[in-house]
Design a protein that fits this description.
Elements (H helix, E strand, L loop, with lengths): L2 H9 L3 E6 L3 H8 L1 H33 L8 H20 L6 H16 L3 H9 L6 H20 L2 H33 L3 H18 L2 H46 L9 H8 L3 H4 L3 H13 L5 H13 L3 H24 L1 H56 L1 E6 L2
Parallel strand pairs: 1-2
Helix pairs in contact: 2-8, 3-4, 3-7, 3-8, 4-6, 5-7, 8-16, 9-16, 10-11, 10-14, 10-15, 13-14
């Protein structure tokens, strides 16, 4: 190692120091005791001085209330009295912080408000200056403000840093306490019981669905679905074709009923199917064939509509059979539904599935609660790392040493 390196190592290497966050304030205080005590005493002196100046202002303003102008100008007396009254209230309401950096800002703000007077009030103040100490006190406060600012920028730093370190220690302690509490909360939440119950119910459901009774119900359910599909198919076929013919039928019915067109069949049957009263219409094949001829002969529809009408009528050539089949299907569906509904196995499976949903919901709620706690643990851990880093930085700068702060 050369001479230059030795000198650098001797004069520029920093002391290495290790401490816990709980001991950090005391370590800092021990090493900066004189500066901290001196700053604390000086801060107290400055705060006391501020109080003295505010008291002087109060007294001078009280005297000003009774001011009488030497030339008997009442306007001067009135302005002086109003000024004294308002400024006394300002002084009375002023609340200065004990912390010197905030104290300085509070004092500066107070002076700005106090000096913010109207032009008339300013002229009166100059006129009565010789008979009051008010302006002199204000000058003293301005000087006091400069002294306070100088103190805050220099000697107050050790005391301020000491308080910051104490504050960080308290924050870290609170964060650690909450972190431990959250970890404890997490360990106290368990889904083991619910998972066992879930497994038991799932097994119960599987056993029920493996039974012959369940198989029988499934077969009936399949038959029910097939019949429902067929019923819907018939309903769709009837509805679609009636809809295609409805305009032509309406025109025909109107002209038949008004005597403009003769119709040999039962026109009321056609009226019923336009109103979707299919079961009441009965056999309508002859009426549809005659309707098709009349619609074409009387030009009740255009060529394309007549063609569509004819196709729809052809599709419903077995209308009565379709309606009867639909009625039979409806009756069979009702019987199957009652049988399925009356089966014990259906209620047993539904109850077990309700129980399974309830236990799954409980598991999800607990998992969400655990997730929320884990998120909070992460937040607390991040905040804790941040405060520890701040504490190390404050210790490093305040002690001019390489400080390592541990949690314990």
């Amino acid at each position: 190692m050369g001479l230059t390196d030795k000198l650098k190592d001797r004069f520029f290497s920093q002391e290495e120091l290790e401490t816990s966050y709980k001991e950090a304030p005391e370590v800092f205080k021990e090493r900066n005791l004189n500066e901290i005590e001196s700053a604390r005493n000086r801060a107290e002196e400055l705060r006391d001085r501020t109080e003295e100046y505010l008291q002087s202002l109060q007294e001078d303003l009280e005297e000003m209330k009774d001011y009488q102008d030497s030339e008997g100008l009442k306007v001067v007396d009135d302005v002086a009295e109003d000024f004294a009254q308002s400024q006394k209230m300002l002084v009375k309401e002023t609340d200065l912080s004990e912390k010197m950096d905030e104290h300085l800002e509070d004092l500066r703000e107070f002076l700005e408000k106090f000096n913010n007077v109207s032009e008339k009030q300013g002229q009166v103040m100059k006129r009565i200056n010789k008979r009051t100490k008010l302006l002199s006190v204000l000058e003293d406060i301005e000087s006091h403000l400069d002294n306070t600012e100088s103190f805050v920028k220099s000697k107050y730093s050790s005391l301020k840093r000491y308080r910051k370190i104490k504050s960080l220690k308290e924050e870290i302690s609170e964060l650690e306490e909450e972190l431990e509490e959250k970890r404890r909360e997490k360990t106290e939440i368990s889904t083991a019981t619910e998972e066992d119950e879930k497994q038991r119910i799932e097994q119960e459901i599987q056993e029920l669905k493996d039974s012959s009774e369940w198989q029988e119900m499934q077969e009936m359910q399949q038959e029910l679905e097939e019949k429902e599909d067929r019923r819907e198919e018939i309903q769709a076929k009837i509805s679609k074709n009636i809809s295609t013919m409805r305009r032509g039928l309406k025109k025909l019915i109107y002209q038949v009923e008004s005597g403009e067109i003769e119709f040999e069949g039962d026109i009321s049957k056609l009226d019923k199917i336009t109103e979707e009263k299919y079961a009441q219409a009965g056999e309508i094949q002859e009426e549809l064939e005659e309707a098709q001829e009349k619609v074409k002969e009387e030009d009740l529809l255009d060529i394309r509509q007549v063609q569509n009408f004819a196709e729809a009528a052809e599709n419903l050539s077995n209308f009565q059979e379709l309606v009867e089949e639909e009625d039979e299907l409806e009756a069979e569906i009702e019987v199957l539904e009652r049988k399925i509904e009356d089966m014990d196995i259906k209620e047993e499976v539904e109850k077990a599935e309700r129980d399974l949903k309830a236990v799954k919901d409980k598991i999800e709620r607990k998992e969400r609660e655990i997730e929320s706690i884990e998120d909070r643990i992460d937040e607390l851990g991040s905040s804790l790392d941040d405060r520890m880093e701040q504490l190390e930085q404050e210790m490093n700068e305040g002690l001019e040493a390489e400080v390592s702060v541990k949690e314990r």
